Amino acid sequence: MISIAIDGPSGAGKSTIARMVAGRLGYLYVDTGALYRTIALFFLRHGVDVEDGAAVGQALGQIQVELRYRDGEQQVFLNGENVNGEIRGDDISQMAAAVSPLPVVREFLLGLQRDMAKKDNVVMDGRDIGTVVLPEAQVKIYLTASAVQRAKRRCDEYRAKGIACDYEELLNSVMERDLKDTTRAISPLRQAEDAELIDTTYNTLEESVNLITDYVTRKIASLG
To answer: Rounded to an integer, what distance in angstroms lies between the CA atom of residue 46 and that of residue 24?
Structure first.
């Protein structure tokens, strides 16, 4: 099986690009962020305090997360319920940011992610895929873009959906998230030593997808 690990900061376009690259290669796309968002959804629904270790542990014991694929698209199930449509809100994003650094949560999801890579060719994106989750991945990419560009893209997305956006506030949020991700004690965001650095600041989405698909194709071919 071939594993492609794509790491990088929030807003770099990892999920969109990884999904498109996986589609071109015929690989399964694994959105690890959706897994953490699913945990966050359960915590919000049940009022779980992330500062209470006992409460977090008890809650995890009540959670079953499953990934299923329909027409090649990832669907996330929480205790048998398809929650794909409920895990993209801002409240979920904020809770996911609080949940994801917790060691017990990361350990809870680690086996699920690794099992998928054992069964299928995968493109998996996140913040510690190449460094922790799949350190033996044959292809590793660190995908980034300037904080200014990432904030602009996110703002454009919101406005396209008719959602008001304060660019300066969003830029500050992006930089704060970068600081938290790179300085957290458990699985901090960093570029793996054997990862290819790809900066998409000045690229269109299509250019980035083409660039990464070409790189991955060459890398896989070199493996023999």
So the answer is: 39
Q: CA distances (Å), 189 to each of 8, 37, 103, 130, 215, in order?
A: 7, 18, 14, 10, 22
What letter does residue 133 receive in the DSSP assignment? I
Question: Within the chain, how many helices (H) and strands (E) appear?
Answer: 8, 8
Contact, 8 vs 147, CB < 8 A? no
What does pTM read for this prediction?
Answer: 0.86
Task: List, for residues 56-84, the tens digit of each pLDDT value.
Answer: 999 999 999 988 888 777 899 999 999 99
- Which single residue is written with the structure tokens 């969109």? 16
CA–CA dist 208, 1 (Å, integer) = 24
User: CA-CA distances (angstroms) from residue 42 to 55, 78, 97, 110, 213?
Assistant: 12, 8, 14, 18, 35
Both ends of the chain: CA-CA distance in Å? 13
In whole angstroms, what is the distance from residue 97 CA to residue 173 CA? 12
